[in-house]
């Protein structure tokens, strides 16, 4: 989203290194999200826009799902509105990532490593959390 750290150059680098990239595919009217395979960096611009102005494959677009393959995911870059230095994350309230990470714990490979990319203005002393919120493993931001 426009108020988040932009990841275009990271995605380009993923493909330049010959690695696989999976992106979120949100299900409307629920908190269900899958991570589905992206064919190329250039493909992003051709994907439909969601109501949040995010390019993602349409729900009817059948793609390889990261949880249906043995390798699963190694890393997830986590979005959010705010973070604290202990890994708590304030999302947008739908629970997409928390629910997805919980599902990952049941995959044979387990939960992937999670990194939040943040602006220094997003770092808080304490972020309010609930019992269903999943911490991120690392928060990266540019210090003062």
Q: From N to C, what is the helix and strand string?
A: HEEEEEHEEE
Number-wise, the strands total 8
Instruction: Please bin the fraction of helical residues.
Output: 10-25%
Low-confidence spans: pLDDT under 50, at least 5 residues?
none
The mean pLDDT is 93
Largest sheet descriptor: 3 strands, parallel
User: In angstroms, what separates the terminal alpha carbons?
Assistant: 24 Å
- Supply the helix-strand structural class: alpha/beta
Number of helices: 2
Placed side by side, the strands forming the largest sheet appear as 3-6-8
Q: Please compute the radius of gyration using only Cα atoms.
A: 15 Å
Oligomer: single chain
Could you tell me the strand content as a percent range?
15-25%
Would you give an account of this structure?
With 144 residues, the protein is α/β, with parallel strands linked by helices. The chain is built from two helices and eight strands, in the order αβββββαβββ. The chain has a three-stranded parallel β-sheet with strand order 3-6-8, with no helix packed on it. A three-stranded mixed β-sheet has the order 5-4-7, with no helix packed on it. Strand 1 and strand 2 form a beta hairpin. The two termini are 24 Å apart. This is 5-formyltetrahydrofolate cyclo-ligase. Pfam families: 5-FTHF_cyc-lig (PF01812). Keywords: ATP-binding, Magnesium, Metal-binding, Nucleotide-binding. It is an enzyme of class 6 (ligase). It catalyses: (6S)-5-formyl-5,6,7,8-tetrahydrofolate + ATP = (6R)-5,10-methenyltetrahydrofolate + ADP + phosphate.
């Amino acid at each position: 989203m426009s108020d988040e750290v932009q990841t275009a150059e990271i995605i380009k680098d993923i493909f330049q290194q010959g690695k696989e990239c999976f992106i979120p595919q949100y299900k409307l009217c629920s908190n269900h999200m899958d991570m589905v395979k992206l064919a190329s960096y250039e493909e992003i611009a051709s994907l439909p826009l969601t109501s949040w102005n995010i390019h993602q494959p349409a729900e009817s677009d059948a793609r390889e799902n990261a949880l249906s393959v043995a390798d699963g995911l190694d890393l997830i870059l986590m979005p959010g509105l705010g973070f604290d230095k202990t890994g708590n994350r304030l999302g947008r309230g739908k629970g997409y990532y928390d629910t997805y990470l919980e599902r990952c714990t049941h995959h044979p490979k387990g939960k992937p490593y999670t990194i939040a990319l943040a602006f220094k203005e997003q770092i808080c002393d304490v972020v309010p959390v609930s019992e269903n919120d999943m911490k991120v493993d690392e928060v990266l931001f540019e210090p003062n």
